Amino acid sequence: MRNSLVPGAETATATCAMRTPTSSDATTPVATPTPASTGLSLSAGTTATSTRLATPRGTATSARSPTPTLSPTVTPVPVSTPQWEVLSNGNYVNAVIGEGQTVWAASDGGVVAWNLQSGQASKFTNIDGLSSNAITAAAYCPIATLGVVFGSVAGLQVFDLRSGGWRTLNSANSPMSFDNVRALYCNADVFCMRWIGLDIFDANAAEWSYIGLDEIGPIHALTADDALAQVWVGGDAGVALVEDGDVTLYSSQNSPPPLRL
Prior knowledge:
This protein is mainly β. Helix content is 5%, strand content 33%.
């Protein structure tokens, strides 16, 4: 039967026509396309396996970064400064003086001051500025550079009535001969003190002088007239009169007073 052409059938026939393979086509293997997502290359005759792929260098991983931890903060403890306290007995009194509304006592446990208006007492020791707590004598001295003065085994302890502070005079910072002071006397012009012998300070001349009294021994009491023309000293060997630079000793052998004063 003779084929007849139907309009439009030529185009359809051309589209569906199959190419007959040749002998060269049969020997050339057909490569199977590799999915881009797997990264695997399969060749003819090769069996694919589940080989694990290494992560390319520089590729971000899903590992979690460690959470930073804070070290505990130590709370600082405030450092307290220890406060010293002196335990001393101010009842053993060696001398008493009065100045204004205050009574001062020189004791073996420091200096005690009583306020006559309030009735309150205050005790001063080496924590308050004394060089020694063994206070042996006391005197009010109207000389401008002094004030209320106390004798001690470590020199003079001077209390400034204006500033309320203490300072020390001794053989290291003044012309004093020795530091052990057992007796004091002062007026507006002259200041005397000593244990053995006399240290005399002339306020008008601003000069110190010394009178040796070795023959009388340790001094326990001291007084003088206003002009310091006569100075009376009581000690272990009796009473000595210092007048115009001369020393006269009175004892039980040449006078009625007892030997020890």
